[in-house]
Amino acid sequence: MGTTASQLGKDLLSEYQELTFLTKQEILLAHKRFSELLSKEDRNLTSVPMEKVLSLPELKSNPFRKRICHVFSTSDMKDGSLTFEDFLDLLSAFSDSATLEIKSHYAFRIFDFDDDGTLDGGDLEKLVNCLTGETEDSRLTPEEMRQLISNILEESDIDKDGTVNLSEFQHVISRSPDFVSSFKIVL
Amino acid sequence: MYFQRNFRWQEIPLHLYPVLYFFFVFTADEEDTVIDSDGRQERAKDKERKKERDRKRRRNVARRASSARKEGKELEDRPEREERRGRKKRDKEGKGKGKGGEDERQEEVKNDTVAKIQKNFSNENTRKLEQKEMEVVGEEDGDTEGKRKNGRSKKDEKKEDKEKHESSEEEEDEEEKEGEEKPDVLSPEELEKLKEEVDERKKLISTLRGKPWPMRKKLLTLRESHEFVEKYEGALGKGKSRKLTVICYRDFENFKTACVPWEMKIKEIESHFGSSVASYFIFLRWMYGINMILFGLTFGLVMVPEALMGRPYGSMPRKTVPRADEANAMDFAVLWDFGGYAQYSVLFYGYYNSQRAIGWLKFRMPLSYFLVGVGTVAYSYMVVIRTMARNANEDGGGDNNSFNFSWKMFTSWDYLIGNPETADNKFASITTSFKEAILEEQESRKDDNIHLTRFLRVLANFLVLCCLAGSGYLIYFVVRRSQKFALEGLESHSWWERNEVNMVMSLLGMFCPMLFDVISALENYHPRIALQWQLGRIFALFLGNLYTFIIALMDEINLKREEEEVLKLNMTIWEASLYNGTLGANSTAPPITVHPADIPRGPCWETMVGQEFVRLIVSDTMTTYITLLIGDFLRAVLVRFLNYCWCWDLEAGFPSYSEFDVSGNVLGLIFNQGMIWMGAFYAPCLPALNVLRLHVSMYLQCWAVMCCNVPQERVFKASGSNNFYMAMLLVILFLSTLPAIYTIVTIPPSFDCGPFSGKSRMFDVIQETLESDFPAWFGKVFSYASNPGLVLPFLLLMVLAIYYLQSTSKSYKQANLELKKKLQTQNEENKKKTKMAAQKAAMDLEEAQNARSESPRQQRNNNASQQSYRGEKNTVAFI
């Protein structure tokens, strides 16, 4: 779809509108941006490699950018490349009107670094490292890290199995006042 | 049953009517009616159908021969319903698999072994066998873990797809099976079922966007469902108009989003500075919308009618510039102060005439003026409270701090941030917040000198109070001085003396917050608490200033009223002298024509109040813009270009670029709005002015933020403070309507200006309208209704209702808390149970192993199959 046809089909457009939380303008804008990403490369490709997607200014300074690409990518090679439809999925999940359920679902998958369906200690540690930045001086000490993770597990691990699963995660997230307003990416 | 059938009638398409007619001719005595689904085929096969129907009838009769007729009716209804319910459930389950399948699977994959153990307990007979199986599985798990991990997500997807296909295929299969069973003939219940299925599909279509599936799958499902719906909807007799309305609706939605102003601007800012700065602009836009509506009300119902239909300028004293001021009424300086021609125009209260009905429309001007004044306030209250309630809903009752760490972890990143600088700041602030939280949790934060801190805090508060008192006194002093100047005549004073009040207020508003900032350094508070203190102090400052201003105005109003009394006396003398003079000169000319500009007039305190507010708004706007230009733009330019030739790094060092002060700006906006609410009754032009101001601010501040501000050092969250600002707005609204209502209710209006002149109180206009425009009984009812005997019980009732609602909400909260506790304990219990079960299973396993090692031969003899299984297991275990 992202090939030579610069314009989306009318039927397809209306279907996309039905299937995402995006408006027509947003889908068209997304298409424009997506084809811009493609234009330098071979036009026959339908998916954009991850490095290209990460160069988008909206994602450039996001510490979870690679995870986001991996979560939304449907390619078989696990290289995080996105097709236009994946891209739309991404934007839809991060859009203004997406529901809490879908946002928290994708947030969980983004935070689940090893893709095993739960957030365990390793995932949480990676998450903290993402949030505190790459520089060494802003990192937490191992002692602080241990304390932090044990606190988090104490709060949100309701069934006390040492990990946070999706329903526990959603339970925690649904009470947060900030999540829906901050889990947003707009083009 | 009757209703159901009736309902179905309307849904049966026209071409089925002949068939149905047959139906009723032949099967009127039967309860179990048969409706054909496909009319077109049926019409051709009339005879066959008749035969079949006869056959069916016979069958039915035979079946129900034993039961009495009435009972049979009821009995049959029930199972039918039951069956339908069952089917529904089944369908839902089928779908649930697709829906919640993923979640379940995640659990399943992980808790594979646990699940198996549980199964063991449920089924004692096959326990041992399954134990082995479990072990085998466990071993396999261990072997192929790496592989599984790699291929898991892929597998998941595949599974998902497969499942989806399965479920949809199942449905299709069901359809087909049913079709095979009873070709071409569908009983009512089946029709019902089909309808339900179609409805379900429709529901699926509408909720599809909320499902975390990849787009390809969603597309497939959508197309499939659309096909299904289209295929069967025709048979069920629903037109395709629905699709059209859906498209229309969507287009309308698109149009609506396209109409939201400044969306792109705000998004750009959002992506640069994060959501907190953007929240200010969203607030500004919201304010703009409210002011647009207020402006529409005052402009459409007050200003325009008066300008079009009221008496023209120069026809009355109140609509004419007095002779003394005529010479410089058009000077810019005078107009800038809203004197001269501006004062005697629709912009101010005094211009309006007290004539009851104006123009050919018989527009009730005074009534309209009063109602618009009341409506403005009422509308503002409604909007603010509604927004607050909605925000509170969105908060989801985030009353508990039990997830402090998790929220910091999971929700602290602002995904909108697209600017590396902001991202760096965010990293830093998140790190500090983590560290602070850990410190707080450890409670190792002990003040080494608590007395010093306390002393410093008290001192700081004392200093702030001094500042507040000083600023209040200064304003009072300045206002009184300006009154003196006004009495002496404005011309003899300099520009500064004329604009002293507004300038002093604006300057105080500008410098006092900085002073507070310096003072708060003494206190050594946590930054978040410090911000709250700072906001509270600025709030107090603004409020104090505003109220001092109002008190001073009240003094002035009283002065003017005294002046008015004197003038009234003088007026009678003047009139008498006029009469005497004219009588002396010419006794035969009864109409005495004096130009309206020459007639002496009262001071009209209402216009004065309006003018003061308008001036205040204008000077406030000017200061805001000028500070913006100097403080932000000029500073940025200097820092940028002097940096090349300076001895230290200006960008990183002392002056640097300015940050965007969200809270200060929001407070400014809120107080500005408070002034609008206060003054709008006496100066109908205020909302218009404010709309203009907000419009300009929007562009100017957007530009300033993008070109000369840097992201905040500490990035605060937006939504948490949203309702805080709203609450402030509500307080300001209340406090600003208070003086306005006080003046309206207690002070009699001026005798010779404004729409209420000649009345003893402004609200008398309501009574007047009731008496003359409504039938007598209405007035009576109204007077009864406003009787204290009725009002007091009503108030009591309202208080009771509030009390009741509050106590119920409290009890709900309590119940919520208890449920939460219960849930937690239950979860823990479950956990314990599963743990115990696992231990027990392990023990059993051990026993079994021991038993086997003791007497391997016996067991081999006992059960060949079990043995072989064990052997298999053993080999696996040894490997």
From TrEMBL, chain A:
<keyword id="KW-0106">Calcium</keyword>
<keyword id="KW-0460">Magnesium</keyword>
<feature type="domain" description="EF-hand">
    <location>
        <begin position="99"/>
        <end position="134"/>
    </location>
</feature>
<feature type="domain" description="EF-hand">
    <location>
        <begin position="144"/>
        <end position="179"/>
    </location>
</feature>
<dbReference type="GO" id="GO:0005509">
    <property type="term" value="F:calcium ion binding"/>
</dbReference>
<keyword id="KW-0677">Repeat</keyword>
<dbReference type="InterPro" id="IPR002048">
    <property type="entry name" value="EF_hand_dom"/>
</dbReference>
<dbReference type="InterPro" id="IPR011992">
    <property type="entry name" value="EF-hand-dom_pair"/>
</dbReference>
<dbReference type="GO" id="GO:0000287">
    <property type="term" value="F:magnesium ion binding"/>
</dbReference>
<dbReference type="InterPro" id="IPR018247">
    <property type="entry name" value="EF_Hand_1_Ca_BS"/>
</dbReference>
<keyword id="KW-0479">Metal-binding</keyword>
<dbReference type="InterPro" id="IPR051433">
    <property type="entry name" value="CIBP"/>
</dbReference>
<protein>
    <submittedName>
        <fullName>Calcium and integrin binding 1 (calmyrin)</fullName>
    </submittedName>
</protein>
<dbReference type="Pfam" id="PF13499">
    <property type="entry name" value="EF-hand_7"/>
</dbReference>
TrEMBL record, chain B:
<dbReference type="GO" id="GO:0008381">
    <property type="term" value="F:mechanosensitive monoatomic ion channel activity"/>
</dbReference>
<feature type="transmembrane region" description="Helical">
    <location>
        <begin position="366"/>
        <end position="385"/>
    </location>
</feature>
<protein>
    <recommendedName>
        <fullName>Transmembrane channel-like protein</fullName>
    </recommendedName>
</protein>
<feature type="transmembrane region" description="Helical">
    <location>
        <begin position="781"/>
        <end position="805"/>
    </location>
</feature>
<feature type="compositionally biased region" description="Low complexity">
    <location>
        <begin position="856"/>
        <end position="869"/>
    </location>
</feature>
<feature type="region of interest" description="Disordered">
    <location>
        <begin position="826"/>
        <end position="879"/>
    </location>
</feature>
<feature type="transmembrane region" description="Helical">
    <location>
        <begin position="534"/>
        <end position="554"/>
    </location>
</feature>
<dbReference type="GO" id="GO:0050910">
    <property type="term" value="P:detection of mechanical stimulus involved in sensory perception of sound"/>
</dbReference>
<feature type="region of interest" description="Disordered">
    <location>
        <begin position="35"/>
        <end position="191"/>
    </location>
</feature>
<feature type="compositionally biased region" description="Basic and acidic residues">
    <location>
        <begin position="179"/>
        <end position="191"/>
    </location>
</feature>
<feature type="compositionally biased region" description="Basic and acidic residues">
    <location>
        <begin position="68"/>
        <end position="113"/>
    </location>
</feature>
<dbReference type="InterPro" id="IPR012496">
    <property type="entry name" value="TMC_dom"/>
</dbReference>
<feature type="transmembrane region" description="Helical">
    <location>
        <begin position="724"/>
        <end position="745"/>
    </location>
</feature>
<feature type="compositionally biased region" description="Basic and acidic residues">
    <location>
        <begin position="144"/>
        <end position="167"/>
    </location>
</feature>
<dbReference type="GO" id="GO:0060005">
    <property type="term" value="P:vestibular reflex"/>
</dbReference>
<comment type="similarity">
    <text>Belongs to the TMC family.</text>
</comment>
<feature type="transmembrane region" description="Helical">
    <location>
        <begin position="458"/>
        <end position="479"/>
    </location>
</feature>
<dbReference type="InterPro" id="IPR038900">
    <property type="entry name" value="TMC"/>
</dbReference>
<feature type="transmembrane region" description="Helical">
    <location>
        <begin position="286"/>
        <end position="309"/>
    </location>
</feature>
<dbReference type="Pfam" id="PF07810">
    <property type="entry name" value="TMC"/>
</dbReference>
<keyword id="KW-0812">Transmembrane</keyword>
<dbReference type="GO" id="GO:0071260">
    <property type="term" value="P:cellular response to mechanical stimulus"/>
</dbReference>
